[in-house]
Amino acid sequence: MLKHRYLLGAILLAALAFPLSAQDIYVEEDEPIGQMMERFAELSKSRKFVPGWRVQILATADRSRLETVKQSFQYRYPNIPVDWMHSKPYYKLRAGAFSTKLEAMRLKFILEQDYPGIYLVKDDKIRPEELIGDY
Predict the structure, then answer these.
(1) Is 24 inside a domain boundary?
(2) Out of 16, 35, 36, 111, which residue is the most buried by the measure of CB atoms under 10 Å away?
(3) Which residues on neighbouring strands pair with residue 64, listed in sequence order?
């Protein structure tokens, strides 16, 4: 225990003796690198959709069943965005919007107790503002 106190004291003393600040950091970049970074930022701002993952709750040919399940879902999980799409002959009910599969798996784990048989789907048309938020 005494060793730990000495070690902690030495770390604190070193941190006070050698403070780091943002003024100590200098970044020099070549002109082509700067231009490339600016171009990347412009392209990123102009993209309307990003690829990501959603949790598919239902796929049915019955539109009224879709509406019933959607209302039930919104009642149970008001903070989780849910939307549907139509890909003939099926109506597909999907929840959430995630940039990684791992994030989507977290929601799937929570929802599969109430909705057995749900699965993850890749979606290349997610609006970036949909990704904001933690469900």
Answers:
(1) no
(2) 111
(3) none
CA–CA separation, 132 vs 110, rounded Å? Answer: 19
Task: Decide if 96 is inside a domain.
Answer: yes
Calpha distance 28→1 (Å, rounded):
45
pLDDT less than 70: residues of the chain: 1-4, 12-13, 15-23, 132-135
CATH of the domain at 54: 3.30.70.1070
Task: Say what the pTM is.
Answer: 0.65
- Is position 64 within any domain? yes
For 52-72, what is each residue's pLDDT tens digit? Answer: 999 999 999 999 999 999 999
